[in-house]
Specification:
eight-stranded mixed sheet, three-stranded mixed sheet, globular
């Protein structure tokens, strides 16, 4: 994985930073002059440099142990999921919800005490752009339209705060802890860009809703094979020894439009589809 927070590659063949936008984006190599700035050896800590004990905990929780990165909050897996030490030290409950061959939703570490209101807010630096506040409003609209036992509301004090960050991802978040949603979503606004068009707002709302999905306990729908949405070779994150629950009547084939797919193309809009709604309703 290439960590853009510490090492930037500029391509002088144009005056723009060239990249592929996805929930986890990758640099596009082109012929030109390459300038490395602030590149540090510890920018990308490989799985081999993380203790076997930690890798074992990650695996037992159902996550792959390839391309694990050490970050301030703990460890980054699957490109945008934060696993804290507290999360890894919990005993895995072993419950998964399967609604299609490539769709898996984690059903452990959920928000409890429902029905309850989840307040979301955006730090001032992000909120300064009208497109970002509009996307946050769209996130609220999408979730509340499902009549869940969780009601989303823009306000403070926030249960989930969206903050500015840099990294090898468009955004990142973690799972609930102690019955509460994960409290911080990091947004790489530099990679996502800015705008106020409906196309941009819906694209950003999809990213925000995806990360909020992690905050309330949702897993990537294609974690069994990340190449489904991210491209490249097959990348099975694995489910460890945990089980799976199939919901009768739902799709048994891969679904290319789920809002919880690991990667997203620039400008892509993924509102909740039929299977997403079933999964959300099952959990909340």
């Amino acid at each position: 994985m290439f960590n853009f927070s510490l090492c930037l590659i500029y391509f002088i063949t144009s005056k723009k930073l060239i990249m592929r936008n996805s929930l986890k984006f990758f640099p596009i190599l082109v012929v030109g002059i390459i300038l490395f700035t602030s590149c540090k050896k510890e920018a990308n800590i490989s799985a081999e440099e993380i203790s076997p004990e930690t890798l074992s905990k990650i695996y037992e929780h159902g996550f792959g142990t390839s391309k694990v990165e050490r970050i301030e909050e703990g460890y980054l897996v699957e490109g945008d999921i934060v696993l804290t030490e507290a999360f890894l030290n919990e005993k895995p409950a072993g419950n998964f919800l399967r609604i299609a061959n490539n769709e898996q939703y984690r059903t452990t570490n959920l928000v409890t005490g429902v029905p309850r209101t989840i307040k979301v807010a955006m730090e001032s630096k992000l909120a300064a752009n009208a497109g970002y506040t509009a996307a946050l409003d769209e996130l609220v609209r999408r979730y509340n339209a499902e009549n869940l036992t969780l009601t989303f509301q823009v306000g403070t004090p926030a249960n989930i705060t969206f903050v500015t960050a840099n990294g090898s991802y468009l955004a990142s978040a973690g799972f609930p802890s102690g019955g509460n949603p994960y409290g911080t979503v990091k947004i790489n606004a530099r990679a996502i860009g800015k705008g106020t068009s409906s196309t941009f707002v819906n694209y950003l709302a999809t990213i925000l809703a995806h990360e909020a999905g992690h905050c309330i306990g949702m897993r990537h729908t294609d974690y069994m094979d990340r190449s489904y949405s991210c491209g490249g070779g097959t990348a099975n994150e694995g489910a460890s020894t945990v089980g799976a629950i199939f919901i009768p009547g739902t799709a048994t084939a891969a679904d290319p439009n789920s809002w919880m797919l690991a990667c997203i193309g620039s400008g892509k809009n993924r509102p909740f589809n039929a299977n997403d709604k079933i999964a959300l309703g099952f959990l909340y």
